[in-house]
Every structure is written in structure tokens, then in C-alpha cells.
Specification:
Alkylhydroperoxidase like protein, AhpD family, CMD-like, AhpD_core, 117 residues, 5 helices, AhpD-like, mainly alpha
């Protein structure tokens, strides 16, 4: 069965909204960390999202793959750029990363409006 990354991130977003309400201090801390980590600096937002995608693939995190590929599409990443990042994730993570890299490519295609395989 094929995964739908837009559906995965929508479901997670709804649950995260509940967590924001139920544990606001923790979630505010996480949001502050995310804002600080993704701010432009020596690396721009796009490069940081590439790094996050590679880590999401290596750690086998569907939600991470969904959120970060969506962000990369918004930031204008090309399929070739994403594939090169996935190549590095495969290199560093071996076979399991290859399986999640294939899913990350599908997520990129879904968010790009292309037909995912």
C-alpha cells in the first residue's frame, strides 16, 4: 500500500495541535528550538531542510519526511537536488535508508503535484 504524505502530515498536525493545547510549555520550547534551528545563518533555510530530510530518512521518520519534503517544495527545491540529498542519506544509512529514500521521493512527488509511485 502506498503512503500519502499529505495525509500523514495532516493527521500528525491535528495531533500536534492537541499537544500544543495539552502541554503548552513543552510545545512552546520545541517551537522556539525549531525557529532557532531553521533560521537563516551560515546555512540558508533550504540547506537546513535538506539536512532535516536526510536525517528523517536515516531515522525512518515518516512525519519528518512529510514535513521536510513539503517545506523543500515550498522553498523551490528541485527533484535533482532532493535526489542528491537522498543519495547521501542512502550512503550514510545503507539499505534501510534506501527504503525510506524511496518513500521520500514519493513524498516530494506528492507535494510537487506529480504522480507518486
Amino acid at each position: 500500500m502506498s503512503k500519502s504524505y499529505p495525509e500523514i502530515t495532516a493527521r500528525l498536525s491535528a495531533n500536534i495541535k492537541t499537544l500544543r493545547k495539552d502541554i503548552p510549555e513543552t510545545m512552546a520550547g520545541f517551537s522556539a528550538l525549531a525557529k532557532a534551528a531553521t533560521a537563516d545563518g551560515a546555512l540558508d533555510k533550504k540547506m537546513k531542510e535538506f539536512i532535516a530530510l536526510a536525517i528523517g530518512v536515516a531515522t525512518r521518520c515518516d512525519g519528518c519526511i512529510g514535513y521536510h519534503t513539503e517545506a523543500l517544495v515550498r522553498l523551490g527545491a528541485t527533484k535533482q537536488e532532493v535526489e542528491e540529498v537522498l543519495g547521501m542519506a542512502i550512503y550514510m544509512g545503507g539499505g534501510p535508508s534506501l527504503m525510506y529514500a524511496a518513500d521520500a521521493l514519493m513524498a516530494f512527488e506528492q507535494y510537487s503535484g506529480q504522480v507518486g509511485g
